[in-house]
Amino acid sequence: MRINGWGRYPSVDADIFLPQNFADIAQFMQTSATCIPRGLGRSYGDSANHSTVIQSSYLDHYLAFDRITGILTCEAGVSIRTILDMVVPLGWFLPVTSGTSYVTMGGAIASDIHGKNHHSSGTFSEHVLSFDLMLASGEMVTVSRQHLPELFQATCGGMGLTGMILSVTLQLKSIGSGYILQDTYRFSSLEEVCEQFEMNQAATYSVAWIDCLAKGSQLGRSLLMLGEHDTNQEFALPKKKVLNIPMDIATGILNSYSIKAFNFLYYNKSRLQKPHSRLPYTSYFYPLDAISNWNRLYGKNGFVQYQFVIPKESGVTNLRKILTQIVASGKGSFLAVLKKFGKANTNYLSFPMEGFTLALDFQMSQSTVELVKKLDEMIVAMGGKIYLTKDALMSETTFKMTYHAWETFQDVRSRYGAIGKFSSQQSRRLGLN
Which is it for strands 291-292 and 243-244: parallel, antiparallel or unpaired? Predict the structure, then answer.
């Protein structure tokens, strides 16, 4: 069948293997050629694309949960959404979550996902106690920071290139409600919002929406949204209707004029809303999950989600340069999300480092390819890097200039027989085979 990432570019014809249990995977490893693990297909580019895919759909069982300590063990195919449906009513939450709940535990580790609280809680892997991994040989090993630490550092953020994650044990966080208290602030410039990230370091969650088509003195005008878990012991959430995009939207509808109009309305609607609100956690963390198949908004050619991080030093100045380049291209984004990262961890291919990260969507076209190439060059020069989970276009040269531990990563893969066994369209493009 034809498969692709959430951005719908690129795609590939693939044979899908759906193991029922761990023994099926072990047998598959001994008889198959090259393959890549795949969860729900929510990485945006081609990191889970290959002609042979091991899909974790049936590895979706809970194995253990301690309601007192909040330690959960489950198979790799269990999603963020299903975990939260179970544990939030019991007063627990994931310590780190991505911007969509349709991510499996295997995918969360492979991407070492980050959230709106990286400045305080780091990445997902920093809360993982251990995981079971199927090696290329078919051997199953338990991996943690204490046992096989180099394999832990290679697998967390390693994009499925070290083996098949089978199960995970992680520490959840205690919460007092299923609701988030959100404070929303409007800022008329990039400098203001970046200063506010610094001033609100104590906030548990922080994220900003950026108008990436505003120019001049309003360049980078933003809405900053701070969040805290409510403590009122209310866990029952209202049922929310899901809007479905039934078909691809015509390519010409999404253009600089429609995006500019949307950005103007989105920025100014905050004038009519209360700055302090209380909303279900689903609305704060996963607003786009309320729109089924929202990737169809970008038309049949798909889109590129582009996320980069640049160092804190000169971060505001460099963000201004990047936004100026995007504004000049006329290829603004509905979804321009700015966050401030805390310190990096020691995983070889983990994305976050101390600084500012911006994620944007660009409709796929030749002009997008040219824009991304220019942005890549700027980010390399600034000492930054691009998120592998959202990458679809990065060159091998750019990757190896920005992910400085890639050779150590490859050495670990070699020692565990992963090179030549686990591969994707992305890994081949980046020279990791």
Answer: parallel
Q: What is the pLDDT of residues 219-256, one digit of tens each?
A: 889 999 999 999 999 988 888 788 898 888 776 666 66
Place of tokens 């051997």: 139
Is CATH 2.40.50.140 the classification given to domain 36-175+404-425? no
**Amino acid identity of 280?**
P
In this predicted model, what pLDDT tens digit does every residue of 64-82 receive, in sequence order? Answer: 999 999 999 999 999 999 9
Distance CA 426, CA 160 (A): 11
The DSSP output letter for 249 is P
Measured CA to CA, the distance from residue 391 to residue 426 in angstroms comes to 8
* Domain spans in the chain, listed from the N-terminal domain onward: 36-175+404-425, 179-395
Helix (H, G, I), strand (E, B) or coil at 58: coil
E strand intervals along 107-251: 128-134, 140-143, 164-171, 173-174, 179-187, 205-210, 222-229, 243-244
Total Cβ atoms within 10 A of residue 144? 14
**Omega before residue 10 within 30° of 0, cis:** yes
Residue pair 81/108 in contact by the 8 Å Cβ criterion:
no
Domain at 179-395: CATH code: 3.30.70.2520
| Measured distance CA(117)–CA(284) in Å, rounded | 13
Using DSSP bridges, classify how beta strands 15-17 and 52-55 pair: parallel, antiparallel or unpaired: parallel
